Amino acid sequence: MHHHSERVYNFSAGPAVLPKVVLERIASEMISLPGVGSSILEVSHRGKVFTEYLNRARDGLRNTLKVPDEYEILFLQGGSRLQFAMLPMNFLRGTQKKAAYAVTGSWGKQALAEAERLGKAECVWSGEDQGFVDLPTAPFQLDANDYSYFYYVSNETIQGLQFPGEPQAGDVPLICDASSDFLHKPIDINRYGIIYACAQKNAGPAGLTIVIIRKEMIPSGNSDLPGYLDYHAHAANGSLFNTPPTFAIYVFALVIEWLNGEAGGLERMYELNHRKAKLLYDVIDRFQGVYRGHAKAECRSVMNVVFNFLDESLKEKFLMGAETAGLTSLAGHRSVGGIRASIYNAMPLEGVEKLADYMFDFAESNG
Amino acid sequence: MHHHSERVYNFSAGPAVLPKVVLERIASEMISLPGVGSSILEVSHRGKVFTEYLNRARDGLRNTLKVPDEYEILFLQGGSRLQFAMLPMNFLRGTQKKAAYAVTGSWGKQALAEAERLGKAECVWSGEDQGFVDLPTAPFQLDANDYSYFYYVSNETIQGLQFPGEPQAGDVPLICDASSDFLHKPIDINRYGIIYACAQKNAGPAGLTIVIIRKEMIPSGNSDLPGYLDYHAHAANGSLFNTPPTFAIYVFALVIEWLNGEAGGLERMYELNHRKAKLLYDVIDRFQGVYRGHAKAECRSVMNVVFNFLDESLKEKFLMGAETAGLTSLAGHRSVGGIRASIYNAMPLEGVEKLADYMFDFAESNG
Fold first, then answer.
1. pLDDT at position A221, please?
2. Fewest Cβ atoms nearer than 10 Å: which of A43, A78, B264, B346?
């Protein structure tokens, strides 16, 4: 446990590091938003004050990702888990069509399992037998007459695998869980039917799920779906079907403004994310007698750098030394073991440099 | 719009006023929790730091409401709206039983509508024809062989009606939406099958729903329910089925500690809440030529004081004068009109005194 009051470099996979200037802003107006006399935690979701933040969040995201007018932006609760259920419930009921799932890691596997319980879902690719170390490369020859959607996870947080671009799935709409690489680079929204993300990696605090959905995919509203699980209910009410997670939306608005302001925009962010990831992968590749990267080189994530030790007994020593150096939350997910360094947008280059140096020194001392 | 930087008295129905000391605490550790080096927004939901707050929230609530071991405490997302769906989906599927709903205001009506879409739900009492001004008083003669549960809303936020105690429903388990009067007084949890509340009135920020459920009511986990909608999934995973709304849970832990500390505990809070409500109802009753309370006197809420003007044109003048006096968010819900003063636990006595004085002076000047 740390006993400094200064900030550490926190490599948590999520909830994860946020920009320090955003935290400072939140702290400075926690007692009273400027000119309001109440905290963001205390104002009505239908009042002027929150409405302004809701619009800043929505418009900011629309501008940042160049989201076309043909798409709706929704702010929901329930995380990816609720999306896992909403997708088959909205798009497989009342149709003979199936859904196609590419299972490239733990989250895709769980999404498929939920879809199989709620509709006709088919696994069209799985990396499980290989231990989730690679990704599909060939285009999927699928027909929209047979499949309602093609589901994939753009970045598997636990295994540290990331698609370099959108997979090809014929004329079947892509649905992407982008929770752990949302807003890490510019993308072409037109390629997606739905792209969604929980906020707690690149976008804000836990408790907010951001959904960008092509309007023509939104159900008619005449369904027998549970109200909260119907995309129509949220779209028709501008994300105010019920009280949304107001604080998380406010923080998201601030993060978006940081991204486009001080952070230099999405192109610059992507360049920086690549530099950060390369620093770590270069050390892993240099010390192949000590470290072993989890994913195949061409599938490596720029967000979650996952590796193990040839000598697994080194793990605890590595973690203890890192903690002492102010480098925290580096333990890998229990299903994969080893180390996971999550280096989202808000992780400063300096933090990654410090970790790369630590890894270098550790390998030299223990190789 | 206000331009002071000092805090106003905010009578919002929710999200609503929080204790100032809680906000100060949040602000002071937003950049770094003491000894941690990261914000509460940035730490893993499975790590030591958050686990401590999760336990403080759960144990604090258990101690405060004397929740017996036979009950589980769950921290969920999705608000009352998701509970509206989860209740019939968990308790009406695979059974011939019905659910009984008492409709005493807008929220009970919406809960019933959702239950009717998802199962066999029966309205056993409705105050709608009378405009939601009163409550059922006679015991309901219901049989647990016919009904899975009896649903009611302990305090209707929009109409300002509050049950003085739990209704009697034979041997049928009570399910109570206590969103807007949770933790306003001591209650006997043994009377309930489930009592739940969204946090954003008496307990914390929006985005957290607190569910206290009798363990024997939790489904077996073998159902075909969507995962997130299965109480079993949350109970079996200690509210960590997926990433919970960590910040809201942390704030809830602080609110609970404030309630039992500086605020003097639940008995004291109840006494104060009664004093606060009486101040306002006394002015309403004194100036019957100006004000007209919405609920019948014996059904009046101590949390939401709802009234109108005999001369409805006075409303805007009242609101403008209140705003100038630093008394904000007093407009009634659009479906009822008039004024709604929400005076939850965190609204200081001084704020209510100031409002009562303002109402007194306003009536004298405009009567």
1. 83
2. B264
A contacts of B6 (beta carbons < 8 Å): 32, 37
Q: Is a pLDDT exceeding 60 seen at residue B307?
A: yes
Residue position matching structure tokens 């080194």: A314
Contact: B226, A10; criterion CB under 8 Å: no
Please report the ipTM that was assigned to this predicted complex: 0.97
User: Which residues in B lie closer than 8 A to residue A251 (C-beta atoms)?
Assistant: 41
> Taking residues A234-240, what's their average pLDDT?
97
- DSSP, collapsed to helix, strand or coil, labels residue B68 as coil
How many C-alpha atoms does A242 have within 13 Å on its Cβ side? 25
| pLDDT above 60 (res A224) | yes
What is the dihedral angle through the alpha carbons of B131, B133, B139, B144, rounded to the nearest 10 degrees? Answer: 50
**Region of B300 on the Ramachandran plot (φ > 0 left; ψ -120 to 50 alpha; else beta):** beta
The answer to whether A247 touches A41, Cβ cutoff 8 Å, is yes
Nearest to B329 among A10, A44, A81 (CB): A44
From the candidates A97, A107, A230, A276, give the one annotated as an active-site residue: A107
Q: Considering only alpha carbons, which residue of chain A is nearest residue B245? A: A207
Q: Is B325 helix (H, G, I), strand (E, B) or coil?
A: coil
Please state the rounded mean pLDDT for residues B193-212: 97
Under an 8 A CB cutoff, do A205 and B328 touch?
no
Q: What is the mean pLDDT of chain A?
A: 96
Please tell me the predicted confidence (pLDDT) of residue B5. Answer: 54
CB crowding B146-162: b at 16 or more within 10 Å, else e? ebbbbbbbbbbbbbbbb
Q: What is the pLDDT of residues B244-280, one digit of tens each?
A: 999 999 999 999 999 999 999 999 999 999 999 999 9
Structure tokens given for B130: 């009378």
Of A4-18, A160-174, A246-260, B54-68, the range with the lowest mean pLDDT is A4-18
**Strands laid side by side in the A291-293 sheet:** A291-293, A304-309, A339-342
Mark yes or no for CB contact B326/A6 under 8 Å: no
Contact A43 B5 (CB under 8 A): no
Q: How far apart are CA B187 and CA B165, in angstroms?
A: 9
